[in-house]
Amino acid sequence: MRNGRVWTKLFIGGVLALALFLLASCNLLALHRDLSAGATVGGVAGKVMHGESYASTVVVVGLREEGDTWIADNYVHLATQQDFLIRLVAGKRYVMVAFADRNDNLRLDDDEPAVLLPSPVTVAQGWKGIAKVSLTLAPAGRLDRTTASALQGLAKIERRPLPVWVGEVTDLDDERLSAESGSMGL
Question: What pTM does this model have?
Answer without folding.
Answer: 0.69
